[in-house]
Amino acid sequence: MAMKRRKLSNPLALAVMVTLWQKPMHPYEIAQTLRRQGKDVSTKIKYGSLYTVVQNLEKHGFVEVADVERQGNRPERTVYGLTEAGREEMADWLSDLLAVPAKEFPIFETALSLLGALPPDEVVRLLAERLQNLEVEVASGRAALEKLYETLPRLFLVEVEYQLHMVEAQAEWVRGFLEEIEKGSLPGVDGWRHFHETGELPPEFT
């Protein structure tokens, strides 16, 4: 099942709609709420573009002006609320993202697809360095998660759990791949090494 094309595709728009689903807010309050709820850990949030996202949501009929706050000499603050169309779009978009796997293009996958351009021993050194960094990330991530469990329900931390699990899975894969290169059990590793030593491309690589 393919993912539906949407009028807005910026994940920040979805995060804003879910925030306004909680209650109507002005953009500054939306930003504060996203930060307080830790959504900046899982969603790329450019707070400067938040106003533009809200305006685009309004243009498409997903949010509307619910109130204009006036306090003394302070500038007016426009409070936005989710429309019925916005509620439907939010639920539909979120359902789509949860149910339909999307092909993403992490930069590490790009690097792996091109690693033959470096000698095997250099790749071993670089991946060993990556593994060390991943292990530090796992240790600090686990400590941070345990701390968060003390103040937040687990429901609000599932994305942090998932991120940590993905880092652990990557570390496990890198560890195994490193071992294969070092032991020489990786198919093609001899041809790869021979190419970097002689400049001759093995027949199986052409």
From TrEMBL:
Organism superkingdom: Bacteria
Sequence ranges assigned to domain Transcription regulator PadR N-terminal in this UniProt record: 18-91
Name of the protein in its database record: PadR family transcriptional regulator
Natural source organism: Streptomyces coacervatus
Source species taxonomy: Bacteria, Bacillati, Actinomycetota, Actinomycetes, Kitasatosporales
